[in-house]
Structures are given as structure tokens and as C-alpha cells.
Amino acid sequence: MRISKRQIQKLNTRRKIIETSYRVFAEKGFSVPSSLIAKEAGVAHGSVFVHFPTMNDLLVSVLSDFGQKMGASLHELSKSESVEAFLREHLRVLEKYETFYSRLISEKNILPKEAKSTYAAIQSAAAYHFSNVVEQEINKGTVKKAPVHMLFNTWLGLVHYYLMNRDFFSGPDESVIERYGPELLTTYLKLIKNEGV
Amino acid sequence: MKTCIACGMPMREISDFAGSDPSKDYCVHCSRPDGEMQSFKEKRESMTKFIVKTQGFDENAARKVAEDMMRKLPAWKSYFA
Fold this sequence. Notes:
The complex is a heterodimer of chains A (197) and B (81).
Chain A: H1 5-28, H2 34-41, H3 45-51, H4 55-77, H5 83-96, H6 98-107, H7 113-140, H8 148-164, H9 166-169, H10 176-192
Chain B: E1 2-3, E2 10-11, H1 40-55, H2 59-71
Antiparallel strand pairs in B: 1-2
Helix pairs in contact in B: 1-2
């Protein structure tokens, strides 16, 4: 099916609003007015409503977009056999969206219901892929036998602690993941791996 | 690329499809041993158990997450109408 020029334009505007929202949400939080998104995206205020009738629709669309990107990256790796490669990819995606993701985990409890459930779906997908790789390593004996949820929550807890306290761990424009990611990964692997395997 | 109508998983390889049959709309994890797609209740319970296992959530909270995920999937639309 041929897509008309007008449809392409419409898709581009939608994309522009979503991309701008990532930045505005990251900088100002998830409670910003739609007028600010429109201003920053350089589109008419009415244009935002055409694509996203409510701010909740926009918020859920941005979170779903993020979830798809993260899911796609992790899905690729969930069939590989190394927890290390998987976690490195997890960190890479988080670093790319670091300010947005940090804001997300900080404001998660005050998000509207649907956005909160989208957040849960994003983490569930990550947990699903993580469980695939970690179970393979447990079966091979390279990772200690521990409940999968504790292995996942320990990793996420560690990474989230650094992200939620970015102001303590790094300078204002510095990436926490870039600075501490390698240390977090090495330490975590040391904790969960069987020695000498 | 197809995604599973019952759980949303991307199906890239033949082995991702139910019974390794790419004409199917649901994935290997959403099919019963006889090849049919799992029922709403079966899927909700298996997703709930999986969330408890992989994230350690309280069972009722996990069931709520599972239902919210299913709400967005084509296979279960009629259950949330």
C-alpha cells in the first residue's frame, strides 16, 4: 500500500512529538503540560491532541516506545548464553536513555495507572529475558543456584540505586552508567558466579 | 515480523512459533501440548506464576500485572470489553 505524503507528514509529526517527550519528560518530569511538549517540538498545540488526545495517551505511547526498544535489544541477546553479554546490553540501553529512565524510576509511584502498568510490562519483559540467560548459566553451573527473582532484583536494585542517586554519584551532565557501569557489572558477576568455572 | 497475539513476544525464528509453524499467530510458550492456544485463564495463571518466579512479586500484584499486559493483546480483547 502506498503511503501518501500527508500520511508520512503525520507519522513524522507523531515521531517528533514522541522524541521531544523523551527529552522533556527526562528534564522536567512526567507531569508537564502538553503545551510545553508542543512548544519544544515546534508543532501547534492542537497537533499534539490530534495524535494524543490526552497526556495519558502520550505518556503511555512514550513508555511503550521505550519498552519496545529495550525489548528488541534484550530479545536479541536472550538466546545467547552469557549473562555478562546480556547485562552489558541492558546497561547500554539504559545509558542511552539514562536521564529519561532515571526520571521514570523516580516518579514511578506517582504515575497514572496505565503508565504504571506499562512500566511493569517493561520490567517484566526484561525479567523474562534475564531469566532465560541466567537459567542457562545456572544449569551449566557457571552461576550460583539462587532464585531467579532474587538474581534479577539484586541486579535491578543495584543499577536503580545508582540511577536514583545520580546527584551523589556523578557530576550534573555525567552519565552514571558510563562511569560506574563496568564496576557494577564486574561486582555483580563476582557475586553470582561460581568461582573457578 | 509477527508478534504473538497472546503474549506479545516477537516471533523471529521458526522455533518461536507454536509447533514450529509460522502460519500460527501465537508462540511456543502460549500453546498447549496439543498445539492449541492456551485459554484466558491458563494464560493468566501461567503469566502470573512467571512474574512471581522472575520478579518475586506478591501473587495478587503479579496477577494484576498479567491482566494489564493481556488487556493490550489481540487474543484477549473480548475478555476486557
